[in-house]
Amino acid sequence: MHTLALCLLATLTPIVPSSVDTAVHEYLEATGLPGAAVAVTHGKQVVRIAGYGRTATGEPVTEHTALPVASVSKSITAYAVMRLVREGRVNLDGPVRASLPEFEMADPRAASITVRQLLNQTSGLSDRTFAAFSGPQPRTLQERVAQLRTAGLAADPGAEFEYHNPNYQVAARLVEVVSGRPFDSYLRDNVFGPLGMPDSRTVDTAADLPGTVGHITIAGLPVAVPEPPAFGNGSGGVLSSAHDMAAWLIAQTEPGMEEMHTPAKGSYALGWSVGRTESGARIIKHSGDLFTATAYQALLPDSGYGIAVMTNTGVTAGDAVALAGRLIALLENRSVPLPNVFLPRAVDLGLLLAAAGTVALTVRGVRRRSRWIYLLSLPLVLLPSIHWVVGWLYRGRDVAWIQVAYLYPAFMIWLVVASLCGIAGLLLRMTTGSSRNLRKRRPTRSPQHTS
């Protein structure tokens, strides 16, 4: 073992159930996070599995409450593919088309995409050439693969890393075709069942989630809302519990898992990424973000610990990553301050006040026939194109318009209110102007004199 690893082990503080509970309760109290599920393992032993707080529908979160794990699903899809690889039914470094003949794209380079390149996100598929979120949403994995027939590649296969959900949707469809079974059925009998994960399953779309599963946060207040429409099977469709995620973390310690945890180049392996903690320890991880829920999993091979967290707030809050970070810091005997919730809450309150102020100013401007009312046409220009602006800020990621409302709800409230005020102000201004012009043009009748 390396000297660095030995030094790190010497500073570790063993995690006990009570310390996990304390860290989670402190976080929930400080942030207002409604609910979380946590699993902590050490080697093949379960240290703590528990639920905290409440679901979006008001029930207590328990160790068996199934919550979305979002893109943590990618490591599970990769595991399913690797099972077929170990059985000799799929060639990891062979072309995807050899196992999935229906995989066709408009770009001839797609013929050389390998299964490994799907799993390590170097296939050349990209948000820049295929709108996975803002385009038409499929209902099945087969439909998703069919949609790719008109898409191109952004790079040669194997040349560049680019995170793109359809890579894993194609991989999940490959599992269906090779196994001859629906993806959910295959996972249930060949992954979840053997690993002891009875609470877990996968779904195709956001509409298949069990009602309202999570929240957005406005000015620090969690608001239960349904997940916006999207297709996610293979890339983000798994629901799991603290109990099941503990079994999943323990499964990662089995012989033969090294290939899934080792990148060919860069930091992304097969459904996992690698890095270092703030103390310098090796970490193998993957996060998952929905717009109403987040998840995070981490393996710490130097100490043998595994950590999984699911929370029922969306990507903007980032609670799963933050809470898992506190648990890792607890293990490494580091002090991590609780998140500063004042600034985001103040920004949201400011935007809500701005929305109310915009209404008041519009009413005043219309009454006084102020010319500045025309400035309210500017939000009208931004409103329909806001998802393109956000996509550009997210370095070219594809974003649907409705998703922006989940990412920045207070800002979108102001933008919609300002746009409606702009429409109302312009219409009233035009109506008032027309009425005034009509009165000016109306001829004045001369008084009639009688003798």
UniProtKB/TrEMBL annotation:
**Coiled-coil segments, which residues?**
none
- Keyword annotations for this protein? Membrane, Transmembrane, Transmembrane helix
Q: Keyword Membrane: yes or no?
A: yes
- Spans traversing the lipid bilayer: 342-361, 373-394, 406-428
The organism sits in which domain of life? Bacteria
Domain Beta-lactamase-related, first and last residues per copy: 20-325
| Species name | Lentzea tibetensis
List the taxonomic lineage.
Answer: Bacteria, Bacillati, Actinomycetota, Actinomycetes, Pseudonocardiales
Against PANTHER family, the record matches this protein to: BETA-LACTAMASE-RELATED DOMAIN-CONTAINING PROTEIN, D-ALANYL-D-ALANINE-CARBOXYPEPTIDASE/ENDOPEPTIDASE AMPH
Isomerase keyword on record: no
- In Swiss-Prot or TrEMBL terms, this protein is called Beta-lactamase family protein
